[in-house]
Amino acid sequence: MNLRLIAAKVLTRVVADGQSLTAALEQALQPVESAQDRALVQALCYGVCRHYHRLDFILTRLLEKPLKDIHIRLLILVGLYQLGYMRIKAHAAVSETVGAAGRKPWAKGLVNALLRRYLREKDACEQAADENPSARWSHPDWIIDKIRRDWPEQAEACLLANNLQPPLVLRVNLARISRQAYGDLLAARGMAAEALAFCAGALILDKPVPVELLPGFADGLVSVQDAAAQMAAGLLDAQPGQRVLDMCAAPGGKTAHILEMQPQLKEMVAIDIDSDRLRRVQDNLQRLRLQAKTIVGDASNPRDWWDGQWFDRILVDAPCSALGVIRRHPDIKLLRRAEDIDALKAQQRAILHAAWSLLAPGGQLLYATCSVLQEENEQQVLSFLAGRPDASELPIAAAWGVAGAVGRQILAGDAGMDGFYYALLRKA
């Protein structure tokens, strides 16, 4: 079983077929029994996606004529990633990658020649890549341009953060155990973790581990959730006896966190348009011993599922470009297109207006995205406020992120967090 071949096949599904990296890996890793082998395939695939634009630039520079075979092209990128970023010995990386070319003699020779040429010309290749913006930051030009436009002073730090491996962040179930006590459980197993002062339940592990190794994970003592996403439940501030709606709820981390923070709700409703993803919400709730009403439905068309009763609190976790979570899902840089943004903005607008129609007078709505683009965030909310005289902003005073014209933005890498946006609105 050649692990580089498996990685190249996964990457082909992503680049050529448009499949998500998560789905492609899940399918490809089923026959791989060794945990160490699985980890290597994942590292290769995530690494190539993370540095794709730089690696592809270097490959194009090494080639004397275009290479049309996408599978072999991606296999060479797997080889270049090993040579440029991993601690695998060069001769082993070259040998195993050449071996993955299979029954194509021409491909074996080409892979071998290109990887060895890279080793000879590495400094020149890397210098040339540094002089090309897309290769230097390993992002498509359109993402670089939009981030620079919106965040000129923070753009380079944000782009750099997108290419780093993210930490494993835990959300301690404070309804069941204190953060200090859970930290002690981790320490007893030799796992070091750091607490975030501005996020009550967050612990950042020094070294990522499989979730099954986390003490009490199966019993609901802890969940995996980035600190930026953990802000939602506190900002929503649900009170006893209230009816709460989480729109676009999958995979359910925020739904569960709301229930952990406020177990005395009248009702918690979670809706998502994807039935498979909604099952993940149900699985998470079951593991955490929490209950919510889950509904498969279109958030922009509540007439098909709403029972006519107002909600006191609504979380709109809007579909977005996800440019704030690239470090966790580097395939976003390969799958997302500039032309997707207008369609997402229209979807966000429709969902936001639909949610507002379900909110009780005096109620509060929290608009959230995992994007760093102002057109999806503060511009979207400002436009909404301009057309709704019954809507007003509730300012968010916090020690995290930066205040915008409305709402608050976290950029990728801020205090080790993912990129996120929040705006809190009140209905008159």
Account of the protein in words:
The protein is α/β, with parallel strands linked by helices and 428 residues long. It folds into 3 domains: 130 residues, Orthogonal Bundle (N-utilizing Substance Protein B Homolog, Chain A), CATH 1.10.940.10; 56 residues, Alpha-Beta Plaits (2-Layer Sandwich), CATH 3.30.70; 199 residues, Rossmann fold (3-Layer(aba) Sandwich), CATH 3.40.50.150. It is 46% helix and 15% strand. Strands 5, 6, 7, 8, 9, 10, 11, 12 and 13 form a 9-stranded mixed β-sheet that branches. Strands 2-3-1-4 form a 4-stranded antiparallel β-sheet, covered by helices on one side. Helix 15 links the parallel strand 6 and strand 7. Helix 4 crosses helix 5, helix 5 runs parallel beside helix 7 and helix 10 packs across helix 11. The longest helix is centred in the last third of the chain and has 17 residues. It is globular.
The termini sit apart by 63 Å
CATH architecture of the largest domain: 3-Layer(aba) Sandwich
Average of the residue pLDDT scores: 97
**How many helices in DSSP terms?**
18
Strand content: 5-15%
Which structural class best describes the helix and strand composition?
Answer: alpha/beta
- Which bin fits the share of residues in helices? 40-55%
Number of domains: 3
What are the segments in which pLDDT stays under 50 over at least 5 consecutive residues?
none
**CATH class identity of the largest domain:** Alpha Beta
